[in-house]
TrEMBL record, chain A:
Keyword Transmembrane: yes
Protein name, entry field: ABC transporter permease
Pfam families for the chain: ABC2_membrane_4 (PF12730)
Membrane-traversing stretches: 21-40, 60-79, 100-127, 147-169, 176-201, 221-242
Keywords, in A-Z order: Membrane, Transmembrane, Transmembrane helix
Record's keyword annotation contains Membrane: yes
Domain of life of the source: Bacteria
UniProtKB/TrEMBL annotation, chain B:
Record field: transmembrane: none
Protein family per UniProt: Belongs to the ABC transporter superfamily.
SUPFAM superfamilies hit by this protein: P-loop containing nucleoside triphosphate hydrolases
Protein name in UniProt: ATP-binding cassette domain-containing protein
Record keywords: ATP-binding, Nucleotide-binding, Transport
GO MF terms, alphabetically ordered: ATP binding
InterPro entries: AAA+_ATPase, ABC_transporter-like_ATP-bd, ABC_transporter-like_CS, P-loop_NTPase
Length: 247, 311
């Protein structure tokens, strides 16, 4: 008799919803993004839109910068809860196939992040535009639908990237103190200077999908693909680590 | 029925050998006590049986199959390894629910085992608010959730109050009585002697003893009797004539080494000396264990462990 994949997925879903810091991070993806959207677009939104060279589409998704921090926290805490106090032993006693356990967990993390990411991305666009008055753009605008959809995928990929890294490093604290400064400082600063290389950073590449027009060498979907590559490498590294190490 | 079979099991951590060519079987229908000082390899062996750690050599199977190849293993094997191994932010009920869900166990079992473990009223509380004893009970509830044929408990009485210790004792006796295979590790001798039928003793990762507890006690006992009499002087002379060397204890009892109760009882009757008490002395498990360890050179530098939990 083999184990039921559905049953293991169900178990992973209960694990996520029953730990407040994990489910809270997921809710924060939506809540933080919407809050910043409403706050920013209702105050400085129209003034910013008036600036020459402003990309109104990219600006519409400005708040995803905050949502992605929550998405990273969600991915990291969902995995790190297994590495606390040897909880992993209990989990692997229930599901001894490490690949099944890992794939099921990542599927639930990725699936939830994708659903919440898409809702967040579309909601932030639609709600944000309510405050933009004459500068408002609509979903029918060129690239808008692609950006809204891509923004949701981007959030899910960042959550999976963090989740994979956490499986390698076995600590949410390590991953968060690595990724968040990277995204807030290194990528932001180096991104302005280094040009060519920086567009391949996981956050910079993925956010290309939010721009109205292609900038630099990577197209919107290619950029998102680069982020998917980062997430993929992290996921495989996490799987490898889990399979090789003693629990 | 289902046995745990460990064959030539070996585990190295770096250069340190934690388990060294270990071979033994745990049979159904009895409680097997798993003894040895801290660091002897008891917990490591249990983790190897559960496939959590990878063996350097040898095999460990349950019913002839490696644990990792069992489908829905919680229905076959229940294990308590470490009472701390649960996420503190989860409620006890949700913790058990994640286990039940993954193995296709009805959610109703969660309430049943919570009640069975004496946690019926605190299932909705978060685990981090639990005392060590309550976590231990939760760990046992988790082990029982799949109604398994094989139960492995690592130091189950750790942190339990006296009622809890009695509960564990009766629980493991009941599980073995139902024909299940029960392995219980401990470093507390009196505790183990109260429930074990069979003993597996490890020292430095190697097997020292694998035999019924009764045989182990007999093999390590020097026969003797204790007695009380109203005429100590006459009895003493009679015993000396027979070549025994009676010694008087502080409490007025006499101890006669090398004698059996049958011999002394008959002797006293022939001599017409009234006996108020006559008792064959048998070594306690603690004495037998210490006798074993004093003869095993690898224990020479190892002090008998006190009540600290094995890592």
């Amino acid at each position: 008799m083999t184990m039921s994949t559905t049953a293991v997925l169900h178990s992973e879903w209960i694990k996520i919803k029953s730990v407040r810091s994990v489910s809270g991070s997921l809710i924060a993806v939506f809540a933080a993004t919407l809050f910043v959207t409403v706050f920013a677009s209702s105050t400085v939104g129209q003034a910013e839109a008036d600036n020459p060279g402003n990309d109104p589409l990219f600006s519409a998704f400005y708040a995803l910068n905050f949502g992605q921090i929550a998405a990273i926290s969600f991915g990291a805490t969902a995995l790190s809860s297994e590495f606390l106090n040897g909880a992993l032993r209990t989990s692997l006693t229930a599901v001894p196939s490490r690949s099944l356990f890992y794939v099921a967990k990542m599927a639930v993390v990725g699936g939830l992040a994708l659903v919440v990411g898409l809702i967040t991305s579309f909601a932030t666009f639609l709600v944000g535009q309510l405050f933009m008055g004459e500068y408002a753009i609509r979903l029918e605008e060129p690239g808008a639908l692609r950006a809204a959809f891509g923004g949701g995928v981007y959030l899910a990929l960042m959550a999976l990237f963090a989740a994979g890294l956490t499986a390698v490093l076995r600590s949410a604290l390590a991953v968060l103190s690595l990724l968040i400064p990277f995204i807030l400082i290194v990528s932001f600063v180096v991104g302005g200077v280094a040009g060519g290389v920086a567009q391949y950073f996981p956050d910079q590449a993925g956010q290309l999908v939010l721009h109205a027009h292609q900038e630099g060498g990577l197209g919107p979907w290619t950029g998102l693909g680069v982020t998917a590559g980062w997430a993929g490498v992290a996921l495989v590294a996490g799987w490898w680590t889990l399979r090789k190490r003693d629990a | 029925m289902t046995s745990i079979d460990v064959h030539e099991l070996t585990k190295d951590y770096g250069t340190k050998r934690a388990v060294d060519h270990l071979t033994f079987s745990v049979r159904p229908g009895r409680v097997t006590g798993f003894l040895g000082p801290n660091g002897a390899g008891k917990s490591t062996t249990m983790r190897l049986v559960l496939g959590l750690d990878r063996a350097t050599g040898g095999s460990a199977t349950i019913g002839g199959r490696p644990y990792t190849s069992l489908g829905n293993p919680l229905r076959r094997v229940g294990a308590l390894l470490d009472a701390q191994a649960a996420h503190g932010s989860r409620t006890a009920r949700n913790h058990l629910l994640t286990l039940a869900a993954s193995n296709g166990i009805a959610a109703g079992r969660v309430e049943e085992v919570l009640v069975e473990a004496g946690l019926g009223s605190v299932g909705g509380r978060r685990i981090k608010t639990f005392s060590l004893g309550m976590r231990q009970r939760l760990g046992i509830a988790a082990a029982l959730i799949g109604d398994p044929e094989v139960v492995m408990l690592d130091e189950p009485s750790n942190g339990l109050d006296p009622e809890g210790i009695i509960w564990i004792r009766e629980l493991v006796r009941k599980l073995a009585g139902e024909g299940r295979t029960v392995l219980v590790s401990s470093h507390l001798m009196n505790e183990t002697s109260s429930f074990a039928d069979h003993l597996v003793v490890l020292g430095k990762g190697r097997l020292l003893v694998d035999m019924p507890m009764r045989d182990f006690l007999e093999s390590r006992s020097r026969p003797g009797v204790r007695l009380r009499t109203t005429e100590p002087t006459r009895l003493r002379d009679a015993l000396l004539r027979k070549g025994y060397e009676p010694a008087q204890g502080d409490d007025g009892c006499w101890a006669v080494a090398g004698a059996s109760a049958e011999e002394i009882g008959v002797l006293a009757a022939i001599e017409g000396i009234p006996l108020l008490e006559l008792m064959a002395e048998q070594a306690t498990l603690e004495e037998a264990y210490l006798d074993l360890t004093s003869t095993e050179t690898e224990f020479a530098a190892t002090k008998f462990p006190l009540a600290d939990q094995e890592a």
